[in-house]
């Protein structure tokens, strides 16, 4: 059984989650982050049996998962009780598919979209963090606002709406952009009265892009959150909270009002971007609560070779509040059926009115 150190969505962070590399110098840690699967934590090997794989998975999570206390407080999670609940469902005569189902059900008790079990034939996941909530997004309405003549710069789609409000659609932090892309986008939108950044349905990706984009809206070094590292196998074994900052970009920056559009499908790196932007002045979050995903994930493998991913390093907002279950917007707005039938996006329209009003007082 091995624990592999991985960055969130394969991203090199300023603060590397590490265990047990607590005393490694920073330059060596930085080197290790460049490896696709860095050094592993040696564990006592368990047998490749149905029960052995169950025990291995429960132990990996027990020793390395980072949200036990928070989730016990939020909904009464008791990982020891989970062990007894699922142990009785495991026996040596069950098929691999049956074992996979039991293990996937056990992991779903964590209610964490970053927790997955994968085999060559299936992928266990917990998606209720967005499936159980209104979508508050329509790709057909998005096409109406973007049209067909919108501009594309890396992963950013953008145009000027007819009320002179800039609109940027960023669908995934997996899709990158360069500093020159951002220069060109902001220069093109420079005469707009305000700017909408639509990250609804953005499931995350590379945190570097979240930091790079947020830096275009920061005008001084700004505290945007905190992070902790796992330092041992106990549920409370964490480092002190380490502050995280956004430094203002040395390139072209935006000074006018901004509305960031969110819904429940904003997750992981996109959730972090929303956290960063909420900490900056003159920026309003509009829409629904984000989906969360505030744990930097590690990966490991079971004796039978199945891979498990799980949250190991918790991240917090600037007020030291856990954002694992999402971030509240400044303005709660939902997409109404009436507006949809008329071909209008309630959340975009609210943001447009908000920006016009803010621009008048700016």
Brief write-up:
With 362 residues, the chain is an alpha+beta fold. 31% of the residues lie in helices and 20% in strands.
Integer-rounded radius of gyration? 22 Å
* Secondary-structure element order, N to C: EHEHHHHEEHHEEEHEHEEEHEEEEHH
Total helices: the number is 12
Largest sheet: 8 strands, antiparallel
Number of strands: 15
Percent helix:
25-40%
Strand proportion: 15-25%
Shape: elongated
What would your notes on this structure say?
The chain is α+β, with helices and mostly antiparallel strands and 362 residues long. It has twelve helices and 15 strands. Strands 1, 2, 3, 4, 9, 10, 13 and 14 form an eight-stranded antiparallel beta sheet that branches. The chain has a seven-stranded mixed beta sheet with strand order 5-6-7-8-11-12-15, with helices on both faces. α9 (207-214) packs parallel to α10 (269-278). The termini are far apart. The model is unreliable at 2-42 (pLDDT under 50).
Topology:
Blueprint: E1 2-4, H1 26-33, E2 40-42, H2 50-64, H3 68-75, H4 79-87, H5 96-108, E3 116-118, E4 123-124, H6 128-131, H7 139-146, E5 151-153, E6 156-160, E7 165-170, H8 179-188, E8 194-198, H9 207-214, E9 222-227, E10 242-246, E11 258-262, H10 269-278, E12 283-287, E13 295-301, E14 307-317, E15 331-332, H11 337-341, H12 346-360
Helix pairs in contact: 9-10
Main traits of this protein?
single chain, 362 residues, alpha+beta, eight-stranded antiparallel beta sheet, 31% helix, 20% strand
């Amino acid at each position: 059984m091995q624990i592999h150190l991985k960055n969130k969505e394969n991203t090199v962070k300023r603060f590397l989650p590490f265990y047990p590399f607590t005393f490694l110098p920073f330059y060596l840690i930085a080197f290790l982050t460049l490896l696709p699967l860095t050094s592993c934590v040696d564990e006592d090997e368990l047998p490749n049996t149905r029960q052995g794989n169950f025990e291995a998975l429960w132990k990996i999570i027990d020793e390395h998962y980072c949200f036990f206390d928070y989730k016990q407080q939020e909904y009464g999670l008791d990982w020891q009780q989970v062990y007894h609940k699922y142990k009785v469902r495991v026996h040596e005569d069950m098929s691999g598919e049956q074992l996979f189902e039991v293990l996937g059900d056990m992991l779903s008790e964590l209610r964490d979209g970053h927790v997955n079990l994968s085999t060559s034939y299936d992928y266990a996941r917990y998606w209720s963090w967005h499936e159980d909530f209104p979508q508050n997004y329509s790709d057909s309405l998005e096409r109406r606002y973007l049209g067909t003549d919108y501009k594309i710069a890396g992963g950013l789609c953008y145009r000027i709406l007819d009320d002179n409000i800039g609109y940027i659609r960023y669908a995934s932090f997996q899709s990158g952009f360069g500093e020159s892309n951002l220069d060109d986008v902001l220069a093109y939108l420079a005469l707009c009265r305000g700017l909408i950044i639509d990250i609804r349905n953005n499931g995350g990706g590379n945190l570097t892009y979240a930091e790079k984009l947020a830096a275009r809206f920061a005008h001084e070094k700004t505290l945007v959150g905190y992070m902790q590292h796992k330092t041992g196998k106990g549920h409370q074994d964490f480092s002190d909270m380490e502050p995280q900052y956004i430094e203002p970009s040395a390139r072209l920056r935006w000074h006018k009002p901004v509305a960031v559009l969110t819904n429940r499908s904003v997750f992981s790196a996109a959730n972090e971007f929303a956290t960063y932007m909420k900490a900056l002045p003159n920026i309003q979050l509009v829409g629904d609560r984000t989906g969360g995903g505030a744990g930097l994930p590690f990966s490991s493998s079971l004796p039978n070779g199945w891979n498990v991913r799980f949250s190991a390093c918790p991240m917090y907002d600037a007020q030291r509040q856990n954002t694992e279950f999402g971030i509240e917007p400044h303005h709660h707005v939902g997409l109404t059926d009436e507006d949809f039938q008329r071909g209008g996006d309630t959340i975009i329209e609210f943001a447009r009115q908000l920006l016009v009003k803010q621009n008048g007082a700016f």
